[in-house]
Design brief:
single chain; alpha+beta; three-stranded mixed sheet; two-stranded antiparallel sheet; 5 helices
């Protein structure tokens, strides 16, 4: 998930949560008998939030319905944008390889992921690997998860991954840099019995 979308998600969810907590808490407090401020929308536990006069107040004005429709349309468009951003594919489908002749070649992202997985799993101490390419096709990024065997040393495994698998992938694709995020986990194993 890119940083802008992550920030938008956090801001939207935070604001929605804050508004709902404040509105619900204040309605609950007034309903339980707390004195409401003078500007508050209802006066006590038996008052409704919108009276019939409030609901009918602007119905005859010419600007009311266009404003309501415009606000609802903007809300729907923002919600659709947010939904599409959540469902958008995060995986990079192809990597642009500079061939040196002014043209470019396209390398399938799944092929590069497969090579990275097989090379990572062939290293000592790595039981299983998972790789996802993200970013732009001219500047890919790697997210890699490694499941380490019980005897593996995390520092040595990380050094082997960066020098061997990621280095070979960077050189073979002709990339100046191949940033990577590597997450290490250890295999759960039972204690060995000593006799």
């Amino acid at each position: 998930m890119n940083p802008v979308l992550r920030t938008v998600n956090r801001v939207v969810v935070g604001l929605a949560g804050l508004i709902l907590v404040l509105a619900g808490g204040s309605v609950l407090a007034v309903g339980l008998g707390a004195p409401p401020p003078s500007w508050w929308i209802h006066d006590g536990p038996h008052d409704v939030l919108l009276s019939e006069a409030d609901r009918d107040r602007w119905r005859t004005d010419g600007w009311w319905w266009p404003v309501v429709i415009a606000v609802l349309a903007v809300c729907v468009l923002l919600a659709l944008w947010w939904l599409v951003a959540q469902l958008r594919r995060r995986r990079l489908t192809e990597v642009l390889v500079d061939t040196g002749d002014g043209e470019g070649a396209l390398l399938r992202g799944r092929a590069l992921e497969g090579v990275l997985v097989s090379e990572a799993e062939s290293l000592d101490g790595v039981e299983r690997a998972g790789v996802v390419l993200t970013g732009r096709r001219s500047a890919p990024r790697v997210r890699m998860g490694l499941l380490l065997e019980p005897h593996a040393e995390p520092g040595a495994a990380l050094q082997q991954i960066s020098e061997a698998a990621l280095g070979h992938a960077r050189d073979s694709a002709g990339l100046a840099a191949l940033p990577a995020e590597v997450r290490l986990r250890a295999v759960k194993h039972h204690a060995e019995r000593v006799s």
